[in-house]
Specification:
- This protein has 4 helices and 2 strands; from the N terminus they run E-E-H-H-H-H.
- The chain has 125 residues and is mainly alpha-helical.
- The chain has 2 domains: 59 residues; 48 residues.
- The protein has a two-stranded antiparallel sheet with strand order 1-2.
- The longest helix is centred in the last third of the chain and has 32 residues.
- The N and C termini lie far apart (59 Å).
């Protein structure tokens, strides 16, 4: 439903209003994900946790600064930049997954229970 403005005619959200709303929603989502990401590092042994926590914060800060730079670009340029960073992130996720699978093969007991079951031969009972 649309609201009415001071003249009594209906006012509809503009494309920019919709983009701002989506950006605000994405920002809220990012903040919740940042918190979850940082909480992971609280479960790591103390000798490594401080270094890993610093690295995690650096990743978040770098990402946030990139997003700030993207926001000041024209929308067409933003789309190109976001598409490029998405491709780069997907590539990095693939690297993380490959390294993680290698680590699991070296020591399968470090996997969570579900992953450990997936790695077991199908015929074993």
């Amino acid at each position: 439903m649309s609201s009415t403005d001071a003249t009594g005619s209906p006012s509809y959200p503009t494309q920019e209003d919709e983009l701002r709303t989506r950006e605000a929603e994405a920002e809220d989502f990012n903040k919740s994900q940042e918190s979850a990401f940082l909480e992971i590092f609280q479960t790591i042994p103390k000798k490594n946790s401080q270094k890993l926590s610093q690295e995690a914060k650096a990743i978040i800060n770098t990402f946030s600064s990139l997003m700030s730079v993207f926001r000041i670009q024209p929308y067409e340029k933003q789309e190109e930049l976001m598409s490029g960073i998405k491709k780069m992130m997907i590539e990095q996720i693939n690297v993380i997954d490959a390294r993680r699978m290698y680590a699991l093969k070296l020591n399968p007991k470090t996997a969570d229970r579900e992953e450990y079951r997936k790695m077991q031969p199908k015929n074993s009972k």
